[in-house]
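<instruction>
Derive structure tokens from the sequence

<record> Sequence and structure tokens follow
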Amino acid sequence: MTFEDYDYVNLEDEESREMVRQDIKGYLQSHTKGLVIDEAHRLPELFSALQISTDEDDTRRYVLSGSSNWLMMQNISQSLAGRVALLRLLPLSIAEISSADNMSTDALIHNGFYPAVWGKGRPATVVYDSYFSTYVQRDVQQIVNIKDMNLFRKFVRICATRVGNEFVASNLADEVGVSLKTIQAWLSVLEASYVVFLLPPYYRNVGKRLSKTPKLYFHDVGLACYLLGLGSEADVANSPLRGALFENMVVVDALKHLYNNGQESNLFFYKDKSKREVDLLMEEKGKLMAYEIKSATAYHADFFRTLDYLRTVYGDDVLSTQVIYDGTEQWDKPNNGFLNFRHLH
């Protein structure tokens, strides 16, 4: 829809892929008005041909997309470095789901935000079961040679139990029964394939002893639910991890908002050695917007306790403090406002 005047080819289709392979240069040159190449990583030799084509005529425009971030970036870094603009397309944001306002929070968390669930009406458990099976059997093996896939599956499922917690690799090494280096390598696989991301702690030195350990989140909370065995919204509602899953949903939606506007992440969390913690900080030009995330449906004044403390630490550098929660009452104020999570952006 965005590039409706461009021609389109999907290289996942074997016939289309072979047609392009026969004469890649000629095929590229024949589409002068622009070309969208879907699943571009399926034809690795395409990328060097694209380099030649764009060097010969820099008015030519190509849009490359692919479901394997690892293979896409590997090919781009080898052939197209400095010639491309990169956009990260995460699963749908809350604002992109028109029915979000009329859906229960537990249903949103359980369904997650993959387009196949919302655009095609497929059951979430079916989508995530298929996705995870394909991911483990195909994508992971292309990134790193894992000898015991059962241990890797165990590792990913344990990660789901750590949502919203600081990621301590040595703890997982003991629990999974592998070395620390293996856990670190496996985490890199999950990050490279956009399954999880680490939210860094805020690091500005204010004379406080601050946490240096990042927190773990999933790029899609529905996948985390699947890995936790939460097969329905009722399971989510009754889960002891509901608050952590709610926090995950809000944090990743903030990340989607940045990526969808072509921006890099400027998100952090605050935690000092006294265990005072603020769930989400957004820094712009040295100024902070701070968010405390609560899965409760009723507002309570105690929600602002750590936000008020943050103001005593950073003073006027804190531009805004907000509680993001699951309630309907809203008070949109720069100092100690509170908003329903659906209206954050």
